[in-house]
Amino acid sequence: MYELSARAREIRERLLGFMHEVVEPGERDYLAAIAQPGQRWEIPPVMEEMKRKARSAGLWNLFLPDSRNGAGLSNLDYAPMAEIMGRSLIAPEVFNCSAPDTGNMEVLHLYGNEFQKRQWLEPLLAGDIRSGYAMTEPDVASSDATNIRCRILRDGDHYRISGRKWWTSGAMDPRCKFFIVMGQTDPEAKPHARQSMVIVPRDAPGVRILRPLQLFGFDDAPNGHAEVAFEDARVPLGNLIYGEGKGFEIAQSRLGPGRVHHCMRLIGLAERAIEAMVARAKSRIVFGQPIARHGMAQEAIALSRCEIEQARLLTLSTAQALDKQGTRGARDRVSMIKIVVPRMACQVIDRAIQIHGGAGLCEDSFLSHAYAGARSLRIADGPDEVHIMTLAKMECSRGEG
Ligand SMILES: Cc1cc2nc3c(=O)[nH]c(=O)nc-3n(C[C@H](O)[C@H](O)[C@H](O)COP(=O)(O)OP(=O)(O)OC[C@H]3O[C@@H](n4cnc5c(N)ncnc54)[C@H](O)[C@@H]3O)c2cc1C
Hints:
alpha+beta; Butyryl-Coa Dehydrogenase, subunit A, domain 1; Butyryl-CoA Dehydrogenase, subunit A, domain 2; Butyryl-CoA Dehydrogenase, subunit A, domain 3; 3 domains; three-stranded mixed β-sheet; globular; binds flavin-adenine dinucleotide
C-alpha cells in the first residue's frame, strides 16, 4: 500500500547492512567508552569513525528531502530508514539524522539567510558541529508556546537575550556550537506574533550551562539535556532567523517532519522490544514450560504485534500526507501519530520488561532506557493532551464554513 521508490529500496538494503556491520559493533565500543571514568561527556572516537564511513557510503542526511543538501528522499521513503535507525540509540547520529540537529537544519534550510546557511547550516550538514533548540522554560507552561518569556531585545546593532531554558537536548555535547533560541521580541504584539527565533553561539558571553538533566536517571551522555541560562547574551541582528514575530510560524513547520521521524524511530524501538520479548519468552522456562506457551504471554506478544502494525500504517500514511499536502495539510495526522505511537511504544516496551522479569529492569538490558525514551515522547514535542486538543478541535470544525 505504501510502496517505496526503487532508490529508497536500494538505500534501505545498504542501510540494513551498515547497521549490522558497523553500527551494532560500534555501539558496544561507544557505550564502553563513555562508561570509563572521566569520559562521560567526551565523544568516543568510534562515533566520528562511523560517521565518516556512513558519509562515504552515501548514507548521510537521509532525512532532508532537498537533493542538493540531503538524500532527496520523500518523507514516505525516509520513514522506513528512520525506523531502522530507531532500533539503536546512537544510529541516528551516525547518519547525521538525529534530533535536534535535523529540525535545526530544516529551519536553517527553509528560513536561514545566506550568511546563516554558510556559518551554521553547512557545518551541521557536514556533521562537523552539533546544535540545540532552546524553547522550553522551567518557569512557564511551555507546551503553550505563547507563554514563552525569554526576552530578545533589540539594542542598536545587536539583540540581547535574557531568559532561562531547560531540557535543551544536546547542550552538553562538546561539539554543540549554537542554539536556536525562541523568545519574545514584542510582548505587546498579538500572541502568535510575539515570538522570534535567534541563533546564539554556545560560547557567546552570557550563555551558561547550569546543569545536565536526567531522564528517569539516564543522563543521555554525551549529548545530554541541559538547563541553560541566557544572561544578557548579545548576538548581531543578523542572527535573527526569518524575521521578528516569525518564531511561532517557524516552530510549527519545524515540528511536522520531526514528529514523523520521532514516531518512526519509536516503531523501530518497539520492533526491537518485541524481538527481545519473544526471544526471552521462548528461552525461559516457568511453571514447566517456556513463558511463550503461557496464554498471558501470548496475549502480550500478539497485542504488541497488532499495535506496532497499526502504528506503522498510521505513520506511513502521515508521511505520505506530508509529502502530498505539506505540514499544514497533514496536521491532523501528525497529531494522531504523536498521540498513538509513543503510547504504543511504552506499552510494548513495558510488556517486554514484564516478560524479562528483573532482567528487564536493570542495566543489562536496553529496555529500561528504551522505556524512558518512549515515555519522554508523550511529553516532548508537545504533550499528548495538546495533540488531543488540536485533533478534537479539527474534528469538531470539520464541515463548518
Ligand atoms: C527528553 C526530553 C527532551 C526534550 N528536548 C527539548 C529540546 O531539545 N528543546 C526544547 O525546547 N524542549 C525540549 N523538551 C521539552 C518538552 O518539549 C516540553 O517538556 C513539553 O513541550 C511540555 O512543556 P512543559 O514541560 O513546560 O509542560 P507544561 O506546558 O507545563 O505542561 C504540563 C502538563 O500539562 C498538561 N496539559 C498541557 N496542555 C493541556 C491541555 N490542553 N489540556 C489538558 N492538559 C494539558 C499535560 O499533561 C502536560 O504534560 C524535551 C523534553 C524531554 C522530556
